[in-house]
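ok so for the tutorial part 2 we go from a plain amino acid sequence to predicted structure tokens. step 1 is just haveing the sequence, like this:
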Amino acid sequence: MKKLPFVFLIRLLFSSSSFACQCKLKSVEEYFTDSKAVLLIEVQSLEVVRETDESLKAGSIKYLEATIKTIETFKEADADISFLRTYSNCGLELYPSQNYLVYVPKDSRVENYASRCHGSFKYLPQLEYSQSKLDAVRKYAHNNQMQPTPNNGSAD
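step 2 — the prediction. this is what the tokens look like for a chain of 156 residues:
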């Protein structure tokens, strides 16, 4: 019986759900509604931004900031979006030279936050599932008169 609390503690500490991001799945329509922009992007570069205050957190990672190139716009923001930020286990894992479909939330503590919980994902065209998700976004944008606009090839 003395081992039972120990086993419970070990299971709690090492269970995948204790560290996993838990998001409420939504429809494409709900993701669009909650977003200020919906973009297919390529990450150009990635920078680590660290805490700079005098607290115990000084020097720890605050967030990652990615400079992006927009490939296709499905919902355009009022202001140009040239970077995304991500952090935490729910943040989107961003890598240079990789493509992502991002729903940039209207309301977030972090400007231009990219998160799996907001519907964003790494776009891999060779995967049928990834392509079908992008097709659903294109279809929704088309049916709601948010015509997708391809980037004209400029880096900005």
